[in-house]
Design a protein that fits this description.
heterodimer; A: 429 residues; alpha/beta; D-Maltodextrin-Binding Protein, domain 2; three-stranded antiparallel sheet; 12 strands; B: mainly alpha; MetI-like fold; 2 domains; 2 strands
Chain lengths: 429, 306
């Protein structure tokens, strides 16, 4: 009997080992992302099918509204959500792909091109170019959606950096809403001269700088700096113009117009320690809760006379190995339809929808109208911030972040720091 | 007839014995098999798979391709990895004696406390129950240079504010402070359990012989607590060598990589940069280091004992 048991245990262990060692089929995942035929074609009304969506929640991004509209059209559809927190969605999709458990649709962010390059996402070019939304995308949105000349995802609920300002502080200082970075400098000077503090006696600053590549875009682009060449083959953070733009942002910290970025900017803004805050619409709910008398406008113009910020929002992609590719396209088409965008609270991609009176009435009621209008204006002047997810050399981001920390925290020489960082990054292209 | 009966009885006894043996066997194996399967699937298999990836170029998406010793060569030229190791050792070798020292001191104080021992024990232990993620978020707010409570308090008593999170040395200190705050309760309870196992008669004899509290601690308490101390030291070392959450939330490895630990670096390499082979090598390095340090600790303690 003991022998039998021993044999049994050995067989079990071997089986479990072999099960783990089994070669997974990644054919779908690594397959080309050209215009291959879909693996399943759906009868639009009769066949029951399940659409699998990797996202952050069954109601996030108003996906529940899209589901309702989709099910009206395809009553036999079942939507299965593979949910993960936003910060872990990339890793979740990576693991799903690695296991060969491929969903149909993916909510993505800065990793779109990285995945597309590896053949994980489908080429949407031919499909999307026939959709109504295509002509309505701004250049900034389009830049974010492509890999080379191919569309690999659809930018969604596009947002960007705006200028939030504390009306009470500006009124006490007797200054207008800043229209340029020079105006911000003047506010900084005034605060410093008056040793202006908040109610708790804490120091107040004119604005903030950031060590986050996506957020610093506003400072660099608006002041004539650049991050990459057009072919994305070389970083240009060390061109004379870029060095000047970085040094200009650094001067705000040096002159104490902006605090050293230590990851507590949200708290400072809510404490009433920032006269203006370069952030996005996502900071508004907590601002309202904190009782701050807030105004929202576009980012001030820089020395170039331009205001340019990074294109944000989420992106939707279709997996190259999706079982229901055709239905996945249909679902996404709904998410970019006018019908959906008007109903959805967080789903406006087409800038023209901002002018819809129904939407404006809703935003007015929730106190968001000013922010939304500022966002509509700012989104006309956005760019894709490649340095936030440099898919050709992912470590490039951390090298650049380290450089920004040296600039804004250790206040080191901008030319030396940016030359060093550019050399390290470009050596890997 | 008698012979037949005795044969029958013998066979019955043998059958019963065999039956019991089988029953025992089934019982034992039913416990052992799940445990072995668990360890095989979740410990040994990933471990050997990890070694396999060390020699591969893999990014979770494409099929792994054999690259020989490329990842190992990469490690020797990687200054960021060595910097991360240095930071990890600094955090570990300061945190371990600090946390254990404070925990031991508190446990002796509480052990000798006549009243409210339970209240204090629970209060101190409660810090351990706060998830490290939550603790890190709260401490980040406390350590803020311009908005943090700690600097506000310092300024209210006329001191200058401190750049807790933007000064490399102080940012490391902040991580150690969180380790101390979060870990003290746990080790204190362990030491309290160790203290309660020491025979009180030894203390009484020592007092009768006129031993002072320091001698009692050095010659009685410490040697008696040796097994507990070894366990605590090894466990704390392993815990702090794996520091990740605190760093990820409090400093994100900054300023300028001064708090980047080897586990954070490994995570970034494996998940953010798609260098699974290289991340596997870093995991192996952490494993080897943990093993070596633990063995040294145990050997040193044993030799001191001898």
């Amino acid at each position: 009997m003991n022998k039998i048991l021993k044999i049994l245990i050995i067989v079990t262990l071997l089986a479990s080992m072999l099960a783990g060692c089994a070669t997974k089929d990644v054919g779908d995942a690594t397959g080309s992302n050209g215009n291959e035929e879909t693996t399943t074609t759906q009868d639009e009304t009769n066949d029951a099918f399940t659409l699998r969506i990797s996202t952050t929640g069954p109601t996030d991004d108003n996906i529940d509204i899209a589901e309702r509209i989709f099910k009206e059209k395809y009553p036999n559809a079942t939507i299965e959500y593979i949910v993960s927190p936003w910060g872990e969605t990339r890793e979740k999709q990576l693991i799903l792909t690695s296991m060969g458990d491929i969903p149909d649709i993916a909510k993505t962010g800065g990793w779109v091109q990285e995945f597309y390059k590896e053949g994980v996402f489908d080429n949407l070019t031919d499909e999307v170019m026939t959709w109504d939304i295509y002509d309505k995308f701004t250049p900034g949105q389009l830049e974010r959606m492509v890999y080379g000349d191919e569309i690999c995802a659809l930018n969604y609920n596009t947002n960007t950096i705006l200028l939030l300002y504390n009306k009470d502080i500006l009124a006490e200082l007797g200054v207008d809403v800043p229209k340029s970075f020079e105006d911000l400098e003047k506010i900084g000077e005034q605060i410093k001269e008056k040793s202006y503090t908040n109610l708790s006696g804490n120091k107040v600053f004119a604005t903030n700088v950031s060590t986050h590549p996506w957020e610093i875009g506003a400072w660099i682009w608006s002041n004539d700096g650049v991050f990459m060449d057009e072919a994305l083959s070389k970083t240009l953070i060390n061109t004379p113009e870029s060095i000047k733009a970085h040094a200009y942002a650094q001067s705000f910290v040096k002159n104490e117009y902006a605090p050293m970025p230590d990851g507590t900017m949200d708290q400072m803004w809510l404490n009433g320690q920032l006269a203006t805050y370069l952030t996005g619409e996502w900071s508004l709910p907590s601002t309202f809760d904190a009782g701050i008398n807030v105004g929202v406008t576009t980012v001030p113009v820089g020395k170039s006379g331009k205001t340019i910020t990074s294109t944000g929002g989420a992106d939707w992609a279709v997996f190259a190995g999706a079982e229901n590719k055709k239905m996945a396209y249909e679902f996404l088409k709904i998410m970019y339809s006018e019908e959906f965008q008007i109903q959805a609270d967080r789903g406006v991609t087409d800038l023209e929808i901002y002018n819809n009176s129904e939407k404006q009435a809703f935003w007015k009621e929730s106190g968001l109208l000013e922010a939304k209008m500022a966002q509509q204006e700012q989104l006309k002047y956005t760019k894709y911030q490649y340095m936030d997810g440099p898919y050709k050399y992912p470590e490039g981001r951390s090298i650049y972040v380290e450089a920004l920390e040296r600039l804004f925290i250790n206040l080191e020489d901008s030319e030396t720091i940016l030359n060093e960082a550019a050399e390290k990054i470009n050596a890997n292209y | 007839m008698n012979v037949l009966i005795s044969k029958y009885r013998k066979r019955k006894i043998l059958n019963t014995r065999n039956y019991r043996k089988i029953q025992d066997g089934i019982f034992v194996w039913s416990i052992v098999i799940p445990a072995m399967a668990f360890f095989t699937l979740f410990i040994y298999y990933p471990f050997f798979k990890n070694i396999y990836y060390v020699f591969m170029d893999y990014n979770y998406i494409k099929e792994p391709t054999y690259v020989g010793l490329r990842n190992i060569k990469m490690l020797f030229a990687d200054t960021y990895a060595f910097n991360a190791l240095k930071n990890t050792f600094l955090i570990t070798f300061v945190s371990v004696p600090l946390v254990l020292g404070v925990s031991l001191g508190l446990s002796i104080l509480l052990f000798n406390l006549k009243k409210f021992q339970g209240v204090f024990r629970s209060a101190i232990f409660s810090t351990y129950l706060v998830p490290l993620v939550v603790a890190s978020i709260i401490f980040k707010l406390l350590f803020g240079t311009e908005s943090g409570l700690i600097n506000s308090l310092l300024q209210s008593i006329g001191l200058n504010k401190v750049n807790w999170l933007t000064n490399p040395a102080l940012a490391t200190l902040c991580i150690i402070i969180i380790n101390l705050w979060n870990g003290t309760g746990y080790y204190m309870v362990i030491f309290l359990a160790g203290l309660s196992n020491i025979d009180t008669q030894i203390y009484e004899s020592a007092k009768v012989d006129g031993a002072d509290p320091f001698r009692i601690f050095y010659y009685i308490t410490l040697p008696s607590l040796k097994p507990t101390l070894i366990f605590a030291a090894v466990f704390a070392t392993i815990t702090y060598l794996r520091t990740f959450v605190t760093v990820e939330i409090l400093t994100e490895g900054g300023p300028y990589r001064s708090t980047e630990t080897i586990i954070k670096y490994m995570f970034d390499q494996g998940f953010k940069y798609g260098n699974v082979g290289y991340a596997s090598l870093l995991a192996l390095v952490v494993f080897m280091l943990t093993l070596i340090i633990s063995i040294i600790q145990i050997k040193l303690t044993r030799s001191a004992d001898d």
